Amino acid sequence: MNVTQYSQGHLSGILAICEAEDWPSLPADPVRAHAVFTAPGVTTVVALDGEQVIGFAYLQSDGYIQAHLSQMAVHRAYRRKGIGRALLEFAAPLTGALRVDLVTDTAEDFYSSFEHRTFSGFRIYPS
To answer: Choosing a second label site near 41 at 20 to 30 A (CA), which of 12, 32, 33, 99?
Structure first.
């Protein structure tokens, strides 16, 4: 397994993982997805098994203090092998931020294994 920064050649592998997770936003428009992964202030990394994308993470950051883990997933066949941790440990320093905030509804045990503080949060959908 190798963790590296995202390039456009990784896009189809990331979108396949999103589809498997039933996350439609990125696969709905691959051009938009690539723009998201390469936008200013965004850090996107992938985990590879050879050439196959087996995980990804993308974070948004101001580059100094705050980063937000926007999305991360590991292919189901590769879970519980340290890939998620490797993605975060590789990506977080690239953001330049001092901390990473995130929201999860499925991986609390995983994220609580990192040094952390727990806060209440909200996801707001503008109309």
So the answer is: 12
